[in-house]
């Protein structure tokens, strides 16, 4: 074999191996995401996710609050867009900016605001924000980042109303 054949075989092996790894990761991630959605339906799950996963349903959560409390405080569109873009930029591509993800959630005042951003994320990127976050290795259940994000979410009130 000459050098060119060896290089071609090496490159081919790397490509096939990479494809296999990414396929395995997507399948594993899809199983974890299904597990999270099972928690939404009350059929088990991570336990802590149940406390706030309904927030990521966006408008359904917002509407349920607005029906009971018409004076609920909502974010203005510019704030929704800025937070959505910050999350997208922190999550997209290789390597998640975990600090930025957590900072966005820390800066949102309540779960209604999180739901507004989640709804905008879904509409603009065709991906559920919870799925996008949980798809990231650094936010897998049991990780320090997942635990911290869970605590941030738990600390938020469900909503605030204008006086």
Structural write-up:
Helix content is 65%, strand content 0%. The protein is an all-alpha fold and 163 residues long. The protein has one domain (3-155). The protein starts with a helix and ends in an 8-residue tail after the last helix.
Q: How big a fraction of the residues is strand?
A: under 5%
Shape: elongated
User: What count of helical segments does DSSP give?
Assistant: 7
**H and E order:** HHHHHHH
Question: From the helix content, strand content and strand pairing, which structural class follows?
Answer: mainly alpha
Number of domains: 1
Essential attributes:
mainly alpha, 0% strand, 7 helices, 163 residues
Secondary structure layout:
Layout: H1 3-40, H2 59-68, H3 77-91, H4 98-107, H5 111-125, H6 129-134, H7 144-155
Helix pairs in contact: 2-5, 3-4, 3-5, 4-7
Quick structural overview:
With 163 residues, the protein is an all-alpha fold.
């Amino acid at each position: 074999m000459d050098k060119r054949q060896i290089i071609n075989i090496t490159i081919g092996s790397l490509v096939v191996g990479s494809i296999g790894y990414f396929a395995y990761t997507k399948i594993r991630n899809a199983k974890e995401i299904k597990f999270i959605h099972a928690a939404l339906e009350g059929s088990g799950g991570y336990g802590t996710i149940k406390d706030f996963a309904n927030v990521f349903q966006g408008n359904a959560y917002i509407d349920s609050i607005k029906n009971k409390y018409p004076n609920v405080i909502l974010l203005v569109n510019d704030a929704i867009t800025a937070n959505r873009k910050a999350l997208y930029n922190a999550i997209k591509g290789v390597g998640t900016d975990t600090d930025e993800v957590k900072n966005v959630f820390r800066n949102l005042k309540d779960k209604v605001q999180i739901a507004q951003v989640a709804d905008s994320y879904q509409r603009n990127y065709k991906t559920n924000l919870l799925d996008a976050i949980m798809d990231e290795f650094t936010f897998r259940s049991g990780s320090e980042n997942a635990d911290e994000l869970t605590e941030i979410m738990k600390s938020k009130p469900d909503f605030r109303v204008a006086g």
